[in-house]
Each structure stands twice: as structure tokens, then as C-alpha cells.
Design goal:
- It is built from four helices and eleven strands, in the order E-E-H-E-E-H-E-E-E-E-E-H-E-E-H.
- The chain has 228 residues and is of the alpha+beta class.
- It has one domain: 2-Layer Sandwich (Pseudouridine synthase).
- Strands 1, 2, 3, 4, 5, 6, 7, 8, 9, 10 and 11 form an eleven-stranded mixed β-sheet that branches.
- It is globular and about 55 Å long.
- The chain starts with a strand and ends with a helix.
Length: 228
Amino acid sequence: MIKVLYEDNHLLVVEKPAGMLVQADDTKDTDMLTELKAMLKEKYHKPGNVYLGLVHRLDRPVGGVMVFAKTSKAASRLSEEVRTNNMHKTYYAVVMGKVEESGSYNDKLLKDESTNISKVDPNGKESKLTYELVSYKDNMSLVKINLITGRSHQIRVQFSYHGHPLYGDQKYNKDAIPNTDLALYASELRFIHPITKEEMTFKLDLPNKYPFNIFKWFISLFLFLYWQ
């Protein structure tokens, strides 16, 4: 069951479960777009197809906040916010080693469509993020990340490239323990409502599981101060 955080005539904001596809692929596994369309169809007793626009994505292993558009007008305007980097996404990740107190990465990322793997490459697209260290424990850093651009696997690739791969990243952390979950969570999403022009902000607590839970006290304090 996908948790709905907000719904009106134009938007559907939900919590994506970690491990679920956003959109159907060759695996034929359950995906959010199909599930949400079915939910809306049943809820509103719609006889035909349900429109639901996908305006941004999260990697399959990543959970957190996502917004979908219920009309083509809303989809077009939200997509423009994404294109112009005006949809603000905040993530938390647990990375290996100790990072600086704060910093930024600005690299060029190139995606290999045949393998679905991205890398830093001079022929790639400009990719920017900023981060700050929340806490450090057991040779792992909990970091808060402001994603400025939205390239494929961007956070995972950039932190790995700069020497701090994410805990549990089976693609970009060569030392990841097999079958461990990726420690990356989309905790906050902020955007302008495509019709009312109101600023919308949605926040979620981090998962209560390892390795996030070893920072539980620090997370509670940091979020309390951050949300004031």
C-alpha cells in the first residue's frame, strides 16, 4: 500500500516505498505509476483510463516523497519546475568515511543507457549538489543533501567519485555488503503548486532501520532545529 500524503484535483503526493519501481520496466515487477492509477480508478469509480503524469523519479532502492500530476496542465508546469531546477529536493544519506562539515560537488555525469550506470565524464551533463554533515559514527557520515540538478544516480555517483560511496550501494560501492539496503532517502520536496501558485512543502522522517537508526538521537535533534 502506497501512503498518500496529499491529494487535490491537480496533484498526488505520496511516500514511495524503497525497493518499488516508479515506472514499469522489463522485470514486470510492481510499479508506482500502475498502482496509483489503479487506486485512483477504484477511488473515483472511473470507467476509462486514469491520467497520472510522472514528473520526476527516484531510483528503485530509494524511498521518500514524490509528486505526480493528475492533469496534463499540472504535469507540464511541474515538469518545467524540474527542468529549471525550481523543484527543491532534500535527501539524507549515510556515506562511508567522514565528509567535510559542508561542501558541494559539481561534476559532469554521463549515463550509459545500455547498462544504466552513470559515471563522471567530461562529455556528461553538469551535475550539482550541496551537502552538510549531520553526524559521524562508526566510520560513517550522515549527510543532508540539497540536490540542485537531477541526473540519473547523481548522489550515488558523485559521493562515490569523491571517495564516500553510500552504504549499501550495490552499483557504486565496491565494498558494499551484498543484499544490504541503499542508505538514501528523499525526505523533503518543495515546489510551487502548478495552479494555485502556493508553495508546497512535504517532509518525512527517516527510516527507522540500519544504518539510519544509529544516528537516531542526532536525527531527532537536527530535524527539530531544521524544522523550526
